[in-house]
Amino acid sequence: xxxxxxxxxxxxxxxxxxxxxxxxxxxxxxxxxxxxxxxxxxxxxxxxxxxxxxxxxxxxxxxxxxxxxxxxxxxxxxxxxxxxxxxxxxxxxxxxxxxxxxxxxxxxxxxxxxxxxxxxxxxxxxxxx
Amino acid sequence: xxxxxxxxxxxxxxxxxxxxxxxxxxxxxxxxxxxxxxxxxxxxxxxxxxxxxxxxxxxxxxxxxxxxxxxxxxxxxxxxxxxxxxxxxxxxxxxxxxxxxxxxxxxxxxxxxxxxxxxxxxxxxxxxxxxxxxxxxxxxxxxxxxxxxxxxxxxxxxxxxxxxxxxxxxxxxxxx
Lengths: 129, 176
Hints:
By secondary structure, chain A is an alpha+beta fold.
């Protein structure tokens, strides 16, 4: 009887260890996939491509809930996307940001719609200075 | 006696199996960590999309409903960037990260170019890299498209083929 109990305990420990191992691996993969640096690069390139293919008069709504949550977690509660000249910058952490340029010569502006966790990109004709 | 020996052997074999099991676990974990690190360590390469978008933008700019919108003059060459709302300035310090070439050909004898009218903008070094490597390099990404248009000159209509080549550098931001 004692022997059977021992076998059961061994199996349970083995299964628990396996579960811990798999969950640690999953945690690593998800933390890498949803890391600030990856999201910054993803969104800055995505916004640059959106602006490149947009035409004046367009308004684009971009769902950035995951990025906004990450930024709030890092204590950044203001804007996280900036467009200066033809450069898109996304900043989700204190130390670091990612910028990518676009070639479409338009006046692109962005603002956050906090209620819907979306970014609104407005494309206008560039005014001659 | 024999039973005792069998028991001892079984315990020894179990221990060896569990050691191998942990070795396998570590190998699997190492492989997954390595693959994930390599995948997310490399930047997303979006240059081909950029090149494609640029071609579509230029095609929309110079033609409408299958007809050429502009007269092929030197003025068009000079004002092409303004007319098509293009800006090739980038955050990179090098000479330029884009190259654009728009060639106009007579439909009947395409790909020969008796029109001798080509619009060239951007960094010519990217074109040289493209010619040297035939595009088989990571340092550039390119896209090329051609399409048919009608050129109206008074009552005459010429059939043309427009060939657009777009090359994007931006190696630092897209290739590790």
